[in-house]
Amino acid sequence: MAVDKRQYPRxxxxxFSVEVSKKGENAFIPVEVVNISAGxxxxxxxxxxxxxxxxxxxxxxxxxxxxMPARVVRVNGREIGVQFICSQDxxxxxxxxxxEEIQSMAISTKENIHLILPGYHAQNEGKNSxxxxxDLGPETKH
Length: 142
Description:
mainly beta
């Protein structure tokens, strides 16, 4: 059994797309994200990728596009797990933009689906807990 080394909890997503490119190629293609956290994401890949490959993810948010560099840490069939490789400040900025963007996308849902950074404490813990949305499987950290 693999040890879960994740630093951040993941949020499962449905029909959420971003764009990805191999680092340095600047040829972005859309991919579907399976789950995401402040530390990385898992997406469905259409091309051959290997552990250690360097990628860039473009998040076309309403206010600005954010590019997040990442390294492939897991390949399981079409599922590709990546870890963001940037500073804590860049991750904090990304989480802030993502959470603002997801608010406008989640209007039809009853719960807010936010990414969480260490030290975050929900004001209404226990009520509509984000824990029910997390996939806490024993995989390599993202």
